[in-house]
Amino acid sequence: MKELSSAEVRQMYLDFFKSKGHDVLKSAPLIPQDDPTLLWINSGVATMKKYFDGTVVPKNRRMTSSQKSIRTNDIENVGHTARHHTLFEMLGNFSVGDYFRNEVIPWAWELLTSPEWFGMDPEKLYITVYPKDKESKKVWMKAGVAEDHIYQVEDNFWDIGEGPCGPDSEIFYDRGQEFNNVAEDDPENYPGGENERYLEIWNIVFSEYNHKPDGTYEPLPHKNIDTGMGLERVVSVFQHAKTNFETDLFMPIIDETAQMSAGKQYGDNADSDVSFKVIADHARAITFAIGDGALPSNEGRGYVIRRLIRRAELHGQKLGIDGAFLYKLVPIVGDIMKSAYPEVLEQAEFIQKVIKMEEERFNNTLKDGMQLLDQVIADAKENKQDKIDGKTAFKLYDTYGFPLELTVEYANDAGLGVNEDEFQSEMDAQKERARNARSNEKSMGVQNGLLTDIKTPSEYVGYEKLDAQGVLKDIIVDNQLVDEVANGEAKMIFSVTPFYAEMGGQVADQGVIKDENEEVVAEVEDVQHAPNGQNMHTVKVLKKMTKEHEYELVVNKQFHDKVRKNHTATHLLDQALRDVLGEHTHQAGSLVEPTYLRFDFTNLGSVTAEDLDKVERIVNEKIWDALPVETVETDIESAKKMGAIALFSEKYGDVVRVVKIGDYSMEFCGGNHADNTSELGLFKIVSESGVGAGVRRIEAVTSKEAYEFLQQRNNILNESAAKLKVAQVKNVPSKIDQTLAQIKELEQQKQALEDKFASQQAADVFKNVQTINGKTLIASQVNVSGMNQLRQLADQWKAKGLSDVLVLGTATEDGKVNLIAAMSDAAMKAGLKAGDLIKEIAPLVGGGGGGRPNLAQAGGKKPAGMQDALKAAAEWLENK
């Protein structure tokens, strides 16, 4: 068999299917676009859902790709098994209503066994089929597979719920008896069983049924082929590797990690090997995830990145690596993958910066976690507990990044266990919260054959004019084609339309449809792309409309003009953000409405007020410069050579539109734009905020809305000047400074009076000492402003050593209660703890609290319970 590099395997697979008429698709970003059901792109087919469920009909129904993917459901297994990864590549070939099993099976066999391609030994290949799928077995045998190399397996049916599904065939490679880890007579000793000898390298799904919402199955209007070959797995075969990690995809990372370790080498022992594998796997995943725009955070995909970095960091410490080191592996990852993903090396400096910052932050967090763990162990021993509770172990895991095994290890060293069942309950509860937080939109819709089959030509002329004559070619009412409609809602496709279909963040045009008498017969409420690309109008029908009749389609010009101006503003804003924040910043989504625009972009943190001012200034300067806005139609490669910025490359066809704003901005864009930036008049940022892990959002307005926004601010300023009694608006800031200084002075005077009053009360309160159970207690209600003054009184009490135990309470003007409890050194030596006392009495004032053994505090909402609480403090002491 050939010995191929990972780059050669990837390229050979794509070249093979290109020779069979497939379009080679570029790997989509790991962050899903327009799919709220997924946290990450987790398979090759994840990018194909819009084609498989019929939402979009591709230009070429044959496609192939090597899709980078992330799966995070079993992170804990990474490093402990031969083939678990967080990041992996899935080679796939796809047919959307074109070829089926009679074509794909012979092609698969050709790719695998032909000397021109992979050249595998047919004797080492085994096939599994679904028992009821008799046809696939026949086709495999016809292709050249021996019958005794075909196994029937009951679970060879791919079904993820509602949507396309069908039987599948899995291909296994026999690695030889030396890899077998089960007995000869073990029931799992066969291709498809749980063993190490037979390695699954490819899965071919014959998607021929619709799984309907009611649980039944019906034939698909258009059958599909979906295949998946894990690159890491198949490379391990070509490179004769025991696991995926001993391949050229991982070993350079492992070797570099060994150079940084304290003399550790891969293969020395099992524990070290696990750490090397975890680091290599996680370094790849975080490099690609950050390169695609995800950033570390406490939620969503950002939390996944943070967790991977922390897990790898801990394994680095096990190898004796001190300090941040993961960031140094980014260029190694980029070099391994440069043939398919040159962008990794191009972004290496930014990716390294992000990882290093997160590593350093975690090292500080780890110290805090270690202090907490030490305290937890000390408390458990003091209280004669034999286990650390699971909630604390989960807090260490969730907040400080401590894997459970690390907490168990430290606890065992101290002669303690960990309540792992309780930990698991906390983990399950978190997973349930995560599931509930995800979108409940369906993963893949049921294929709609009606829309998919509509192939009526339809021309969009809205770039040139907003009024056009078009023949009504298709009318759809309640998912049925009809010849006429008199009223209600309908979907319509015209031979010609000036109405823009929503795309790229730009909202759809609105307007009306008129008949030959200039009467309005329908109102256009929305326009979306039909599966075959036509502009499909959702209309409210007012008068009867008939198929094949010609109508006048009229776009609302005022609405359209405001939208196109705001769209041009998003292009200016995009480039201005790159100029100010850096080239790592890129668009993560947008919405262009007539009255405002919304622009999402990636960035490490919030944008400073100073940088926002710079961005806003740049955009306005480009408006004042009256730059021409030009549109060029060209092929995609020429557009890239021109320097045009592509935002979501998988959406572009061979012919693309490039919008050029003077010499300042050039982007791929199919939307509508102003003819000159001067049309925008004025640009004003309304807000900047965070919307997710590493994603910021700017909302802005232009033209009339910008003027109205500034006018509103001006009115507020004038009103403020009047209330502050200043004659000129320019004096408002100095008047505010003056007023704030006066307020500060008054507050200091008030505080001094309150302190004096509290001290006077203390003289009386501290005289009231009770002796209970051999200990002295001062327990009283005082009239002070809040917790700060209670703490001051406690400091006075401690300095003078007035009693063993102190309990003070106060009720504030807003009906809240503050309690404080303190213990002398002698009381603590006798086993008394302020935290225990405060927990006992706080419920009586309708609250709760806690603290250290020497000082604790609580809040409540029940002033009437104050005396009961003070009385309970005496009873607590009496029982000690």
From TrEMBL:
All copies of domain Alanyl-transfer RNA synthetases family profile, residue ranges: 4-712
Sites where the protein binds Zn(2+): 567, 571, 669, 673
Recorded catalytic activity of this chain's protein: tRNA(Ala) + L-alanine + ATP = L-alanyl-tRNA(Ala) + AMP + diphosphate
GO cellular component: cytosol
Any one GO BP annotation for this protein: alanyl-tRNA aminoacylation
Keywords recorded for this protein, A-Z: Aminoacyl-tRNA synthetase, ATP-binding, Coiled coil, Cytoplasm, Ligase, Metal-binding, Nucleotide-binding, Protein biosynthesis, RNA-binding, tRNA-binding, Zinc
Enzyme Commission identifier(s): 6.1.1.7
GO molecular function, one term: catalytic activity, acting on a protein
Family annotation (InterPro entries): aa-tRNA-synth_II/BPL/LPL, Ala-tRNA-lgiase_IIc, Ala-tRNA-ligase_IIc_anticod-bd, Ala-tRNA-synth_IIc_core, Ala-tRNA-synth_IIc_N, Ala-tRNA_ligase, Ala_tRNA_ligase_euk/bac, DHHA1_dom
Coiled-coil region(s): 707-763
Cofactor notes: Binds 1 zinc ion per subunit.
Signal peptide range: none
Protein family per UniProt: Belongs to the class-II aminoacyl-tRNA synthetase family.
The protein's role, per its UniProt record: Catalyzes the attachment of alanine to tRNA(Ala) in a two-step reaction: alanine is first activated by ATP to form Ala-AMP and then transferred to the acceptor end of tRNA(Ala). Also edits incorrectly charged Ser-tRNA(Ala) and Gly-tRNA(Ala) via its editing domain.
Domain characteristics, as noted in the entry: Consists of three domains; the N-terminal catalytic domain, the editing domain and the C-terminal C-Ala domain. The editing domain removes incorrectly charged amino acids, while the C-Ala domain, along with tRNA(Ala), serves as a bridge to cooperatively bring together the editing and aminoacylation centers thus stimulating deacylation of misacylated tRNAs.
Protein name: Alanine--tRNA ligase
